[in-house]
Every structure is written in structure tokens, then in C-alpha cells.
Amino acid sequence: MFQGGHAAAAIELYLGAFPSGRLVSSKEHAAPATGIMLAEIELEGQRILLSDSAVKHGFDFTPSSSLFVDVESRDELERLTTTLGEDGVTLMPLGDYGFSTAFAWVSDRFGVSWQLNLP
After folding, report:
1. CB of 112 within 8 A of CB of 10?
2. Cα separation, 71 vs 28, whole angstroms
3. What pLDDT digit, counting tens, does each position of 49-105 carry?
4. What stretches of 32-91 show up as alpha helix (H) in DSSP?
5. pTM given for the model
6. How far apart are CA 31 and CA 47, in angstroms?
7. What is the CA radius of gyration of the chain?
8. 119 and 73, same structural domain?
9. Structural domain range at position 13
10. Residue 49 is part of a domain; what is its CATH number?
11. Of the residues 22, 33, 60, 117, which has the maximum number of CB atoms within 10 A of its CB?
């Protein structure tokens, strides 16, 4: 649930980051609210629901809940780390952490947390 009407921009970022991703459905809020009431996207075989909050609230995204993505190549991992991490926060830079030889953890510019792994 995004605040400030950022769901559409987030969908654009995610579908751009994952070329095989697709928009499954999207419905706009009715006036006076604006933005996306509910959208569903599919990324790497997983369905994700997104919405714009119709009211301001005192919480936002937190890294305690992350989207975990296994990738097939180092190039793909580097691209996703750069794309999703742009204007966001790097929680764990791309590196070898013992449990994975290539792993990165970023929070995108909307605050959504992504753990990216090359198994």
C-alpha cells in the first residue's frame, strides 16, 4: 500500500525491471480519492497486489518484509540491483555473504525491500 499516489510509478519501475513481468489488472479509486485502488502484477511467476492508500496513515514499508528474487546470472543480478536500488537505500551491497556468492538487498525509492540472489 503506497502513500502519495506512487503505485502507478512503482508498477512502471517493476515491469521495467522484470521484462517478463505483466500487469494482470488495475482499478482506479473513485472520486474523491485518486490513484490505484487495486492492481495486480506478475513478476517472475509471483502475483503481487499494489494499491494507493485513500487515507494518510502513520506507517509505511519496512525491510522486515521483502520480496526475494532468485536470478539466473550475475549480469541480471547487477542490473536489478542498480535498477531497483536507484534513488533508494542499499541495505546489503552486492557481495559474497557465505550463504550466497552473489546477493544484494536494496530498498527501492518507494521503500519496498528487495533481496536479490544468484543461487
Report:
1. yes
2. 32
3. 999 999 988 899 999 999 999 999 999 999 999 999 999 999 999 999 999 989 999
4. 74-85
5. 0.93
6. 27
7. 15
8. yes
9. 1-57
10. 3.30.720.100
11. 117
